[in-house]
Design brief:
Layout lengths: L2 H17 L10 H11 L5 H15 L4 E4 L13 E7 L3 E6 L6 H15 L4 E5 L8 H9 L7 E5 L2 E4 L11 E5 L5 H12 L3 E5 L7 E7 L5 E11 L14 E2 L4 H9 L8 H6 L19 H9 L23 H20 L1
Parallel strand pairs: 3-4, 4-7, 7-8, 8-11
Antiparallel strand pairs: 1-10, 2-3, 5-6, 5-10, 9-10
Length: 348
């Protein structure tokens, strides 16, 4: 057995022992177990043992160690920052974030400026569900858009970021959607917006995976990423390993959440998709039913022609009603912003 394989397996074994220290006072000797497996398990090779050791070690360390293949190394650079961005219900800016990366702050500010020219925006929904990223400077830059004073914002490894003093800060209320797949720089952004008072968190707890990484090249061409240090807020408070707890919890089963996240309105007529999201299959329409109300002109015309309007269809299509947001977290966030807008209007 090579020294490399032995060391790797030893590390994996020690990880297993540490995790089960509470279950057993004495752990078996690693070399004793290894020799028995190598001698008595038919068909196992040193390559098999090496692969099992690496995979087991990474899995056991629960996201604190990552193995990056050469193919995946540059994949994120081609992913847009926003998976979707538009104005909901005429006055709520909605950004569905794919990843937190360089340029996100500028793109968000530009879009808000363009929308504000034709809409009086009530607020912003920043959807960080299923979002990640490792660019903590980009997370701090987004939070800085909403701040007027200079202050420390974030520390990660040897790097840190501060807000800038300015009079042009965005003053729109922000609701931030999070869930168990909100991780890395997206998780740090959510923490920043809440810590600075810029936004409220809605949804479920986050992943607890905001860490500063170090990368090491491997002879195989892969790279090993190790979580070297926790990410901390400006006052030195580390982001919790158990994840951030939302200010307002919106409990949605994971399978339903993914379906509604992809299409918050639900496509009309897609009974299977809506059923997967927990909708009543007998009510697949995305619009409320509207009864035909004849106008005075309709009544006069029908009397002249000797017709009854009792069982007739309307002579023209009724005006379409506003689509209904079926995603509970997004609907809650939009309602909250609209409620805040009403309160602010009555106080002004």
């Amino acid at each position: 057995m090579s020294k490399h394989v032995f060391v790797t397996l030893a590390l994996m074994w020690s990880g297993l022992v540490w995790g089960r220290a509470a279950e057993s006072a004495a752990a078996p000797d690693f070399k004793e177990v290894f020799d028995l497996v190598r001698t008595h398990l038919p068909g196992v090779t040193e390559t098999d043992l090496n692969r099992a050791a690496v995979e087991g070690l990474i899995e056991r360390l629960g996201g604190r160690v990552q193995l990056i293949s050469p193919e995946a190394a540059g994949a994120d650079t081609h992913t847009p920052v926003f998976a979707e961005a538009r104005v909901l219900e005429n006055d709520v800016a909605w950004f569905r974030v794919a990843r937190v990366a360089e340029g996100m702050a500028q793109e968000l500010a530009d879009r808000l400026a363009n929308w504000s020219a034709s809409n009086r925006l009530a607020g912003v929904v920043l959807d960080l569900r299923f979002a990640g990223g490792d660019d903590y400077a980009a997370a701090a830059a987004v939070a800085d858009l909403f701040l007027t004073e200079e202050k420390p914002l974030l520390h990660w490894g040897k790097d840190s970021a501060r807000s800038t003093r300015k009079f042009s800060a965005l003053r729109l209320p922000v609701t931030v959607l999070v869930n168990r797949e909100t991780r890395g720089a997206a998780e740090a952004l959510a923490a920043l917006l809440r810590d600075t008072g810029a936004g409220l968190l809605l949804g479920g707890p986050t992943a607890g995976r905001a860490r500063a990484w170090e990368e090491f090249p491997l002879r195989s061409g892969q790279r090993l990423r190790i979580a070297a240090a926790p990410v901390k807020l400006g006052d030195g408070t580390p982001l919790p390993d158990e994840g951030l707890k939302p200010d307002i919890e919106v409990d949605v089963p994971p399978q339903q959440e993914r379906v509604l996240y992809e299409n918050p309105y639900g496509p009309p007529g897609e009974t299977n998709l809506l059923a997967a999201a927990g909708e009543d299959s007998g009510a697949v329409t995305n619009r409320p039913v509207r009864r035909f109300r004849p106008t005075e002109a309709d009544l006069v015309r029908a009397r002249r022609e000797g017709r009854s309007l009792t069982n007739e269809q309307p002579s023209r299509e009724p005006a379409p009603s506003r689509p209904v947001i079926r995603d509970p977290a997004l609907a809650r966030a939009v309602d909250l912003i609209k409620g805040l807008a009403v309160v602010r209007a009555t106080r002004s």
